[in-house]
C-alpha cells in the first residue's frame, strides 16, 4: 500500500537515484552529438572512428539507465510514499511543482523509450521524436532548479535539504 504523506524524508535509494539521473542527463548532453554522428553513420553504413562508437554506445547505456532509475524511483515512491509538499509555500507553487515533476517523469521515461524504439527499428522519424523532447526537458529542468532554489532561499522550506545525500530534514 502506498503510504504517501506519512514519511518525513525521501528514501536513500530515492536520493541516490535522483542524483544519478542528474549525472546521466548531463552526460547525455555532453555526448549527445556523438550519438547523432553514430546514428547517421550507422544508417548510412559509413566507417566510424572509435570515439564516436564508444560515446554512441555510452549514450545508449546511460540513456537506458535513466529509464531504469526513473522507473525504480517511481516504484519506490509508490511503495514507500514521498514526504509531504512543504506547508509554508503558496498553493500555486505546490501545484506548479506537482505538474513539473509529472512532466519530468513523462520525459525521463518517454525519451529513452523513443530512443530505443528508433534504434531497433532504424527509424529516422522516431529518432526525430526522441530528440524533439530534449529542449522541453531542458526547460523543465530549468524550471525545476529555479523551484528548488526558490524553496530554499525564498519560501525557506527544507525541500532542497531533504534531497541532499545523508540529510533527513523535514520541510
Ligand atoms: C533520457 C535519456 C536520453 C536523453 C536525455 C537523450 C538525449 C539525446 C540528445 C540530446 C540527442 C541529440 C544529439 C544531437 O543531435 O546533438 C540524442 C540523439 C539520439 N539518441 Fe538519445 N537520449 C536519451 C536516451 C537514449 C536511448 C536509451 C537511446 C537508445 C538507443 C537513444 C538514442 C538516440 C539516437 C538514435 C539519437 C540520434 C538521433 C538523430 O540524430 O536523429 N537515446 N539523444
Ligand atoms: C537533470 C536534472 C534534474 C532532473 C531530471 C530532476 C528530476 C526530479 C524529479 C522527477 C523529481 C520529482 C520527485 C518526486 O516527486 O518523485 C525531483 C525532485 C527534486 N529535485 Fe530534482 N532533478 C534535477 C536536478 C535537480 C537539481 C540541480 C536540484 C537542486 C538544485 C534538484 C532538486 C530537487 C529537489 C529538492 C526535489 C524534491 C522536491 C520535493 O521534496 O518536493 N533537482 N527532481
UniProtKB/TrEMBL annotation:
Q: Name one Pfam family in it.
A: Ni_hydr_CYTB
Query: Could you say which protein family the record assigns here?
Result: Belongs to the cytochrome b561 family.
- All copies of the Cytochrome b561 bacterial/Ni-hydrogenase domain together span 9-166
Under the heading InterPro entries, the entry gives:
Cyt_b561_bac/Ni-Hgenase, Cytochrome_b561_oxidase, Di-haem_cyt_TM
Q: What is this protein called?
A: Cytochrome b/b6 domain-containing protein
State the annotated membrane topology for this chain: Multi-pass membrane protein
The record's subcellular location field reads:
Cell membrane
Transmembrane segments annotated in the record for this chain: 12-30, 50-75, 95-120, 132-155
Q: Which UniProt keywords apply?
A: Cell membrane, Electron transport, Heme, Iron, Membrane, Metal-binding, Transmembrane, Transmembrane helix, Transport
What cofactors does the UniProt entry give for this protein?
A: heme b
Amino acid at each position: 500500500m502506498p503510504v504517501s504523506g506519512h514519511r518525513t524524508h525521501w528514501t536513500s535509494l530515492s536520493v541516490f537515484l535522483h542524483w544519478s539521473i542528474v549525472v546521466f542527463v548531463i552526460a547525455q548532453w555532453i555526448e549527445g552529438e556523438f550519438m547523432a554522428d553514430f546514428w547517421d553513420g550507422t544508417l548510412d553504413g559509413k566507417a566510424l572512428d572509435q570515439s564516436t562508437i564508444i560515446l554512441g554506445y555510452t549514450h545508449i547505456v546511460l540513456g537506458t539507465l535513466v529509464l531504469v532509475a526513473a522507473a525504480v524511483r517511481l516504484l519506490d515512491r509508490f511503495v514507500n510514499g514521498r514526504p509531504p509538499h512543504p506547508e509554508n509555500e503558496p498553493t500555486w507553487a505546490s501545484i506548479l511543482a506537482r505538474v513539473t515533476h509529472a512532466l519530468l517523469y513523462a520525459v525521463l521515461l518517454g525519451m529513452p523509450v523513443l530512443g530505443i524504439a528508433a534504434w531497433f527499428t532504424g527509424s529516422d522519424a522516431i529518432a526525430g521524436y526522441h530528440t524533439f523532447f530534449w529542449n522541453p526537458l531542458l526547460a523543465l529542468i530549468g524550471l525545476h532548479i529555479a523551484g528548488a532554489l526558490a524553496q530554499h532561499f525564498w519560501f525557506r522550506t527544507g525541500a532542497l535539504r531533504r534531497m541532499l545525500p545523508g540529510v533527513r530534514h523535514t520541510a
